[in-house]
Design goal:
The chain is of the alpha/beta class. The chain has a domain of about 140 residues: 3-Layer(aba) Sandwich (Rossmann fold), CATH 3.40.50.720. It is built from ten helices and eleven strands. The longest helix has 21 residues. The chain is globular. The protein starts with 12 loop residues before the first strand and ends in a 21-residue tail after the last helix. The chain binds adenosine-5'-diphosphate (ADP). Adenosine-5'-diphosphate binds next to loops.
């Protein structure tokens, strides 16, 4: 018997971050005016860089570019790679206590000898713009207002912007880090998706991906998701940022190979990336609102309708 393979050709939508970025910039501008009208302090984000790790420097450069565009001050703080744990904690506490600073982001990775847990335990939850402290992470998982990690929060906004149905959808998330995969899975379950969370010890990653309507990838591994793994028509959201042999930035999915198979896919660069730093800017403003009230209960996820200036095309 001859085996006939039926080729499914799908018209793949490329989900670019730029159109959502325009909307976010408008919303940020409106929120800035609103915060000032309420008597809030001018928002300032402090980034703390310890040493000179290349990914940390790259992320800081992208934050700096984005914050210039939206005219929110970014104040880089630097400590030498030889910084002791006590000095790192002292630096975080100094920023906590500085009334001018509304948001604090500690750039990762830290030099190997420093335990990232130190940051989680000492950062003020009201200034924790990437939602990493136990307070914000706990509030997120409990469904309470909180400052949310920028990458997954931006990913969710991208899915919403392109009208991708989440309720009842089968979503496979690859990666369980506290800043991307795990909060992404939580946010998706809160939106009524059925979520499978995969990691290095997942037995059959291909099978978990194959069953998904939406695949969210945050593993930091170029080419991890290949065309044969993806159900035709599935949506692929790629958070990966990797440097390939040619020195180019590539995601975790085989973008070229998935064209004609995935129903929609985010490119790398140009997909989730441009949204992340903007969500961080928005979180810096959200922290400004929280500071005004001294409470995370007032963190704005969605701007009130009258502040939305959304006219762009999708
Ligand atoms: P990020 O900050 O982008 O989330 P991390 O390096 O902190 O990146 O986390 C990577 C995550 O990806 C981990 O949870 C790890 O288990 C998962 N991961 C890495 N490689 C694979 C793989 N080959 N298969 C499945 N999961 C993977």
């Amino acid at each position: 018997m001859r085996l006939v393979t039926e080729a499914v050709i799908v018209d793949t939508r490329v989900l670019k971050g730029a159109s959502l970025a325009r909307r976010l910039r408008n919303e940020i501008a409106a929120a800035k005016v609103h915060l000032a009208a309420l008597g809030g302090a001018t928002p300032i984000l402090a980034t703390l860089l310890v040493g000179d790790s290349a990914p940390a420097l790259a992320y800081r450069a992208s934050i700096d570019r984005t914050f210039r565009k939206v005219e929110i001050e970014h104040r880089p703080v630097e400590l030498p790679a030889t910084t002791s744990s006590d000095d790192l904690v002292a630096a975080v506490e100094a920023l906590n206590g500085d009334p001018e600073i509304t948001g604090i982001l500690v750039l990762m990775p830290l030099p190997g000898v420093l335990d990232p847990h130190l940051i989680l335990e000492h950062l003020s939850p009201l200034k924790d713009v990437d939602g990493i402290t136990p307070t914000n992470a706990g509030r997120l998982h409990l469904g309470l207002p909180s400052l949310r990690p920028s990458t997954p929060a931006g990913g969710l906004q991208l899915l919403d912007f392109f009208n991708i149905e989440l309720e009842g959808a089968k979503v496979t998330v690859i990666g369980r880090s506290n800043v991307v995969g795990r909060p992404m899975a939580t946010l998706l379950t809160q939106r009524h998706a059925t979520v499978t969370l995969c990691h290095r010890r997942t037995r059959d990653l291909a099978a978990e991906v194959r069953g998904a309507d939406i695949v969210c990838i945050a593993a930091g591994s170029a080419g991890l998701v290949t065309p044969v793994m993806v159900k035709p028509g599935a949506v692929v959201l790629d958070f990966g940022v990797n440097v390939n042999e040619d020195g180019n930035i590539v995601g975790d999915a085989d973008f070229e190979g998935l064209l004609g198979i995935a129903g929609a896919i985010t490119p790398v660069p140009g997909g989730t990336g441009p949204v992340t730093a903007l969500v961080l800017a928005r979180n810096t403003l959200a922290a400004g609102f929280a500071a005004l009230q001294g409470s995370l209960d007032v963190v704005l996820f969605e701007l009130p309708d009258h502040l939305r200036l959304v006219t762009e095309e999708r």
